[in-house]
Design goal:
heterodimer, A: alpha/beta, TIM Barrel, nine-stranded mixed β-sheet, seven-stranded parallel β-sheet, 16 helices, 18 strands, 30% helix, globular, B: alpha/beta, cytoplasm (chain B)
Amino acid sequence: MKYCLTLDRLLIKGGRIVNDDQSFCADIYMEDGLIKQIGDNLIVPGGVKTIEANGKMVIPGGIDIHTHFQMPYRGTTTVDDFTQGSKAALAGGTTMIVDHVIPEPGSSLIEAYDQWRQWADEKACCDYSLHVDVTHWNDSVKQEVNTLIKDKGVNSFQVYMAYKDYYQMSNSELYEIFTFLAENGGIAQVHAENGEIIAEEQARMLQMGITGPEGHVLSRPEELEAEAVFRAITIASQTNCPLYVTRVMSKSAADIISQARKKGNVVFGEPITASLGTDGTHYWSKNWAKAASFVTSPPLSPDPTTPDYLNTLLASGDLNVTGSAHCTFSVAQKAIGKDDFTQIPEGVNGVEERMALIWDKAVVRTGKMDENMFVAVTSTNAAKILNLYPRKGRIAVGSDADLVIWDSDSVHTITAKTHNSAAEYNVFEGMELRGAPLVVICQGKIVLEDGTMHATSGVGRFIPCSPFPDFAYKRVKARKQLAVLRAVPRGMYDGPVSEFSPMSRGGTPSASARTSPTKQPVRNLHQSGFSLAGPPTPDDIPIRPAGRRIVVPPGGRSNITSLS
Amino acid sequence: CTAMQGLQNSDRLLIKGAKIVNDDQSFCADIYMEDGVIKQIGENLIVPGGVKTIDAHGRMLMPGGIDVHTRFQMPDRGMTSADDFYQGTRAALAGGTTMIIDHVVPEPGVSLMSAFDQWREWADSKSCCDYSLHVDITEWHKGIQEEMETLVKDHGVNSFLVYLAYKDVFQLTDSQVYEVFGVIRDLGAIAQVHAENGDIVAEEQRRILEQGITGPEGHVLSRPEEVEAEAVNRSVTVANQTNCPLYITKVMSKSAADVIAQARKKGTVVYGEPITASLGTDGSHYWSKNWAKAAAYVTSPPLSPDPTTPDYLNSLLSCGDLQVTGSAHCPFNTSQRAVGKDDFSLIPEGVNGTEERMSLIWDKCVVTGKMDENQFVAVTSTNAAKIFNLYPRKGRISVGSDADLVLWDPDITKIISAKSHNSTVEYNIFEGTEVRGGPLVVISQGKIVLEDGNLHTTEGSGRYVARKPFPDYVYKRIKARSRLAELRGVPRGLYDGPVCEVSVTPKTMTPASSAKTSPAKQPSQPVRNLHQSGFSLSGAQIDDNVPRRNTQRIVAPPGGRANITSLG
């Protein structure tokens, strides 16, 4: 039967294998969608299809950690469904996508999850996983989150700090959700923007008569993104929950993430194709449809130095992972907001362009990162965060045969005329990029060769993500053990007590009617050199020694010698 | 009245041979004052005969301190903080502070005006030194806005404090804070913020109590400094959006101070107020085995358990990243604290510090060489006067200024103790601290109130000092930015293509979120923080039909090109 074998057995000869840690030359043999052998002079069945890589790079297929395919929106749906979207992904060298399930507030998370599974199972051309967005919060949602983690293969949940009166969560709710996720091994994702201030600013813009797409970015300045990132980090740190900031769009938001990482917070930042590749000056385009095609939240920054800055932070490891947040609408759909920018449906393209764009901006034209780092930020880190590693994100024996032969020199110009998305506009229109996939192999089958797609709807499998990914949770667990709080043992106070009226004052300890899900005390002890639980100095001694302390003057003593 | 000169006592006063210290310079001169006002400064002054004369012997004479933050006789659940306006201002004067600014705290539901009148009445009858009043905004609706206008226009209030903590009591939402800041900016006042994330504090309090931690250590454990820094960051963001000057009260931690310092470097108009307690002690005492002592340190935001905090805050005060100091003096006695003996969240909050403020800063900052005497005057008096529009009547020694002066002895040492302090409470949080530097003579309204260690204060002699809006020190920049930041829509033809049909359910955002009308009455005054960016937000794109970026740009690699030559 061996001559019937076509795509199930495949040999790549003479490739340079690029993982996130090293590159080396070897042949790869795969069978039934898995990598079976790596090495030289492999013994493989006769008649197997062989691809000559001619020394080109073979990299793990990209993982686009953030897509919104076929997303329902006020009775319509984004123009790229799971077929169209995953085809575009494959065309760009991405062999797995992670889509967001968005339950309507008030509806069941599980039902929404089932709906998305059904859509994706029918149509996806590549493997996929799902994040579930938590758009409201109560005990039954908590139960559903628990079920999703335990039985449904979901380990990441997004909450919104924007979209006031709709998706937006209060700080107390964030605290409770983060606490719950930390206990159950989930990753807390946040859409970080201050929705309260945005609502005020939107009202102000509209009052001033600014109704076009420029109002979108004017009402969502990057400070509001940075503020929300800061707040989310504070809450995650309090609850000892790993945090993942989706769509890092501005320099200030990225700075907050990198500062927090330097202080030891477990936080990951996800810039998207759009923020790495273009900027928000287009919101001022005279062409309404073009300006509207850039509308996404948080918005693209009008500061044109932003993409370069984010690429640098991605290269340095301050940002870790890239998605596209691909969520495309037609011009007619965007035109719902033609008289009011707040009504423009939000989302940009980017699933197809992601890999080539990062290669172009960060590797080939600037030398910001090497090919190994490129693999890390386009694939491996995502697999680690989602607990899919090393099945995904690595070329190793036993891993899925999702591979890309990468042509580092081919040059192409992005245009809506040739892209695989159904949208009329492409936010990267006219950009010339160096680097592209030559061959894409998904589940051990060739899906792109000689510029021709051979994708099949419905072959994509749901890949369950298990909780407590080591990449995030090793540190979280260690901190949990460290941070045990103890009360001070004291005798009972038995002195006089003032009369007081029992009206509530100050902090109301039981602010939320729900019981706190917290059981484990957690505290960010790694940030401080002193113990919060440690016994203090004895009490009867004067606190400060009466003698003078020697204090170093600010700026140090360096110029004291030069003065003397 | 020359016939009466033999009877002159404190209304006319001459200080000879002083080294006058203002925030900008020090110089030697005599100074003559009459009717509570400085009349002459110079040498060989011609003064009426028989005037009382103090010989300064070259000692420093500085503007009396201004304690920008006190809470004397503050009501709390039917109790009142232990020091009333008489005891509180006596303690202030004993420490060299000749003016205090107290906080009016209206119970939610009570009108600002009636609370303000109540505080005026209390202070007018008891205060021994001049005073002014901040008004706290403890709830938000249209009526409050009108009262704020009245307070600014007719009652000399130019500062309002909002709370980001005390959930379900004083706490305002971000939207409300945005609206309040808009009103404050239009009125020309200063937005003060109590910065702690009250939502998180409430969650943490419950968690700590659930674990059986009920003592004062639970207070600090439930209010970690990150929660303070977060709220500072958030209020800076809202202040930038509204182009409103911001003032953070009670800066208690390094991280909160860092956020302020960073924001100032980015151009935000923000001021930070560390207090005597955060400059002089730390939060390790919350773990004291003596409950009453531990409880005496309870204040919010709490003292940081990090013992390096005071030194750090003193350094930032010295370099100008923090500008002004108060005491937040609001002590309760032990039986009052004991209301929270079984639950730290019920312990009334506040510490002492109005008497110790000047000496403590002198000791920690001047004696150590962090700051000079002029900067000392700036952070204890002048900056406060400038921010709150009292300058140069207060905060400066010059002809025409109020005769509120302190003759300072830089070498006197004393050990702070509850046994000898002027406050009525049993504990002093600085107990046992030895400080160098203190007032020798204190003159308030031209009268000697402290001499030879004896206080000669008069209950009710303190005057209410009205403050005008739009202090230059703050508002020059705010006004310039208001003018700069004009937003324009892009002129476009009408979109006339196809439009998708949609169901009517509202999407994501609700622009008219707040049912109340936005109190920002001048929509023609758009504000934006343009000074932070080099690009224009209103520039139209000329090249919109031309494909962009079709040429390769030359991009410098990160880290610059420095080692390219060494490689080549």
